[in-house]
Design goal:
The protein is α+β, with helices and mostly antiparallel strands. It has a domain at 30-109: Alpha-Beta Plaits, CATH 3.30.70.100. It has helices at residues 46-57, 79-89; strands at 12-15, 27-40, 60-65, 71-78, 97-106, 114-117. Strands 1, 2, 3, 4, 5 and 6 form a six-stranded mixed beta sheet that branches. It is globular and about 35 Å long.
Length: 118
């Protein structure tokens, strides 16, 4: 799967176990994005809060602190739910101050859980 002219990779469709619940004839869009969040995002429970948010939406992937003071995350799952977590990350937990969020679409890895790294 390669990125198109717009830099985004095509969305992978998977058969949903609860077919009729999604109203898409048994198919749901599975997508993955990598986000980098800058601002006051270390020491404010950003990673733990993101893990809780991801779990609440059934999102898999990971989140980690970076040496430059930012937070990086890989979010994978149903496209609509992934975008809900991205929107949450634009403000983060109460003690955080998000200055910027950069997002890029990446190839889904079919991960099964969400973990906090480093």
């Amino acid at each position: 799967m390669t990125a198109g002219r717009d830099g985004f990779a095509p969305v992978l469709l998977l058969r949903c176990r609860a077919c009729k619940a999604h109203g898409r004839g048994g198919m749901m869009a599975r997508t993955a994005v990598r986000v980098r969040i800058t601002g006051i995002v270390h020491g404010v429970f950003f990673r733990g809060s993101m893990a809780e948010e991801a779990a609440a939406h059934g999102i898999s992937g990971w989140v980690r602190n970076m040496a430059d003071g930012s937070v990086e995350a890989l979010l994978e799952g149903d496209e609509e739910k992934v975008m809900r977590v991205v929107e949450w990350a634009r403000h983060g937990p109460p003690r955080a101050r998000v200055d910027s969020l950069k997002m890029e679409r990446v190839r889904p890895r079919n991960s099964k859980s969400f973990r906090i790294e480093g």
